[in-house]
Design goal:
76% of the residues lie in helices and 4% in strands. It is built from five helices and two strands, in the order H-E-H-H-H-E-H. This is Putative Outer membrane protein.
């Protein structure tokens, strides 16, 4: 991630140096977009977030149920430990270990599924947003439009921030597509 950010900064610096050093008197028009804000505040982004939260809640309820089963088996084993034969105790301990392994696998599978769904939800949205930003850049005569993420842009004037315009255009494009 740091290499990617460094690469963006290096590319940006090189572009401005070339423009300045070349004596080119072309107007430089810069815009800034916060893609995370667009994702979180666009209608599709809100819907994707809601769908993801629903998925997480359903996975969590399954995990909670399994966790209760494990706790019950563990409590039963502790209560019956003194009266169980060695073989019966060993069998219950093996059952508990098996349930714990299944629980851990279920947790891992659930996390992977949530990550995959998040990627599916946001990937399509980001692709559409980038197309809108490209069109805005071309139509608006921008030299460069930067992503204002993770503190990459430390300062910018409010009038070059295109985030709200991108959200509006994206929502409009999605409404037309329905």
């Amino acid at each position: 991630m740091a290499e990617k950010t460094f690469g963006k900064i290096l590319l940006l610096a090189a572009a401005f140096i070339l423009l300045a050093a070349g004596g080119v008197r072309a107007e430089v028009k810069v815009g800034v977009v916060d893609l995370m804000k667009v994702l979180n505040e666009s209608e599709s982004g809100k819907k994707a977030k809601s769908n993801l939260e629903t998925l997480i809640k359903s996975k969590q309820s399954v995990l909670d149920e399994k966790g209760k089963e494990i706790e019950k088996l563990k409590a039963d084993l502790e209560k019956q430990s003194s009266v169980l034969s060695a073989d019966a105790k060993k069998s219950k301990e093996e059952d508990l270990e098996k349930m714990l392994r299944e629980y851990q696998r279920l947790v891992g599978d659930s996390q992977n599924e949530v990550k995959k769904k998040e990627s599916e939800f946001t990937g399509g949205i980001l692709k559409e947003i980038r197309a809108i930003v490209d069109k805005m850049g071309e139509d608006g005569g921008y030299t460069i439009i930067l992503e204002n993420a993770d503190g990459l842009v430390l300062f910018s004037k409010k009038d070059i921030n295109l985030t709200d315009v991108v959200i509006k255009k994206y929502n409009e494009s999605r409404a037309k597509g329905k």
